[in-house]
Write a structure and sequence with these properties.
Low-confidence stretches: 1-22, 195-200, 414-421, 436-445
Mean pLDDT: 82
Number of strands: 31
Number of helices: 3
Strand content: over 45%
Structural class: mainly beta
Shape: globular
Distance between the termini: 38 Å
Largest sheet: 29 strands, antiparallel
Helix content: under 10%
Length: 445
Amino acid sequence: MKKFLFFFLFVLLTTNNVFGIDKSINTKSNNIYDYKGDLLLVENLVYDYNDRLIKQIVKTPNDTNIVTVECIYNDDGSVVVKAITNIEHRELKIWEYNANGDLLKANNYDATGEIRYNYDAKYDLNNNKTKVVKTWYNKDNTINNSYIYEYKYDNLDRNTEKLVYRNDKIKEKTNITYNINGGYIREETYYPNKEYFEDGSNGSIYKYVYDKNNNKLEENIIDEKGNTKINYKYNDKGNKTEAKTYINDKLISQEEWIYGDDNEIIEYKKIKGNVLVKHFLKDLKTGNSKRRYINADNKNCYDIYENEYNTEGKLVKVFQYGQIEGFEKYPVLSRTYDNKGNIIKEIFFDPVYRDGKFVYDILFIEYEYDKYNNKIKKYQYSNHDDRFILDNIYHEYDNNGNLKKSIRLHFDEPNYSNNKSFYEQIFDEIIYIPSKEKNIEISPL
């Protein structure tokens, strides 16, 4: 009976036509290129009659399988995803999601079929996560490390308690209390096993006070440093205008914000003692701004921003300069925009003061976008190196232009070799995960 069920499942997963019902009505292929523009991978996608991905196969140009992903959609809306790498260090990864796209289980297996990592999550009837277990295994199947997270909620589905265990010993406990508007008014965290913390502390308490508009008026932090208190003030539009920080009742710093008519910050000050350590000022007419701060050598430093607009009043360039007290102004950054507001080019200047003048290493970054204004390519070059593709980004859209999936390939060095270790490195970037939690808990240590 088990053999029959296994055979039936195999047929179901590998056959596009089951009992006369065509599971796949659409197939698509994508060519994926490396930093030089040479063909790196070929991605084949198969969709079912609901336009859901049921299979993804990624191969090299010489037809070597790199990744195979299969998605199984259950009647209750849950999804099972199986991903396997057909390379030297063969791995099988299986994820299970509920109908809300929340990750329920994740298992990673090595080339011998032995489990190396397990993730297990539980949810209540209101879809609140109540428990998570993470376990890492050694090669002999003994447990290398494990964490357990437990959560409790009030009748408004707000998290009120969190417990963290490591290797069956309690590591951390947090209790949270809310006001009637949902803001935190008290958060207490305790660390029963002090050996996990270098400072020897065993807890901290955060207390908050809000006004009738739920703006935070006061924040109190009690921990190994003593008692830190921050008082806040707001204008009639709810914008923060002042923050005073005290440690053990001694005033440490004061911050002030001034806003324009559109609620944009036009001036900011930070004072420590009687010293103005930071100052930001924006010109409303030109959009130019200047930020002053004090560096480690106790010298005044400035970040200067100058904007350039086209005849339609659209921002086309931003220039950033730096200046240190006693030295001339030097370039830091140039940023260019297209008519849709996308950044298309950045120039970074790395200044070194030598022989009485600044000399620079210059880094150039360029971007390309698709018709939906999503970034698809990122190029990099310098005054020392040739231009190459740093990122290749591929987007898949439905017939209405809604984004279905994205994959991003990042090339740290232009001289990489097309070898198995590189494909392993990008494995988690290539695979398709039909969930809002694409990058959570998918790899072992």
